[in-house]
Amino acid sequence: MNDKYKKYKQLIELATNLSVAKELTKEATAGYAGTALLASNGEIYTGKSLTGICSIAFCGEVGAVLSMLKDGISEIEAIVTVSNDRKLMPPCGRCREMMYQVDRKNLKTKLLLENGRVVTLNDLFPERAQELWETLQEDSS
Ligand SMILES: [Zn+2]
Questions:
Q1: Model confidence over 66-119: pLDDT tens digits?
Q2: Does residue 1 register a pLDDT over 90?
Q3: Largest CB tally within 10 Å, which of 65, 126, 138, 141?
Q4: CA 139 – ligand 1 centroid, Å
Q5: Cα(43) to centroid of ligand 1, in Å?
Q6: Burial 14-38 (b: 16+ CB within 10 A, else e)
Q7: Are strands 118-120 and 88-89 parallel, antiparallel or unpaired?
Q8: What is the pLDDT of residues 124-135, one digit of tens each?
């Protein structure tokens, strides 16, 4: 088993262990999904989802990315999110945008999916508004 495979297996195990839904109040539940990421500094950061009323919803990716950012790191090598039914989930559109906004190098981030599939953020986020804005600004100058 090579080191990269061992790290990915560790990420999946951590995310799975965090993916345990716990009702905090009548309104809020934590842990419909758990996330683990391997950052460019070699450290692993984790998070879990928080869902409530009044449109309160934070994916597991948000918690893991914020945990990484507090250490001054923004580049993600690999990330995985596991749902309560033990499925490896691709990040939602907002989280794809978030990972791109915190560090452009995250287009190379490996996303671990079902059946051993590994894709990059760029594969799942090929059209980016920022690049259109940059083109429009260049055209107007
Ligand atoms: Zn999300």
A1: 999 999 999 999 999 999 999 999 999 999 999 999 999 999 999 999 999 999
A2: no
A3: 65
A4: 33
A5: 21
A6: bbbebbeeeeeeeeeebbbbbbbbb
A7: unpaired
A8: 999 999 888 888
Ligand 1 center to 79 CA (angstroms): 12
| 65-74 core/surface letters (b: 16 or more CB in 10 A; e: else) | bebbeeeebb
Q: How many A from CA of 74 to the centre of ligand 1?
A: 17
Q: Which fold has domain 3-140?
A: Cytidine Deaminase; domain 2 (3.40.140)
* Stretch 51-68: mean pLDDT: 97
- CA–CA gap between residue 49 and residue 59 (Å, rounded): 4
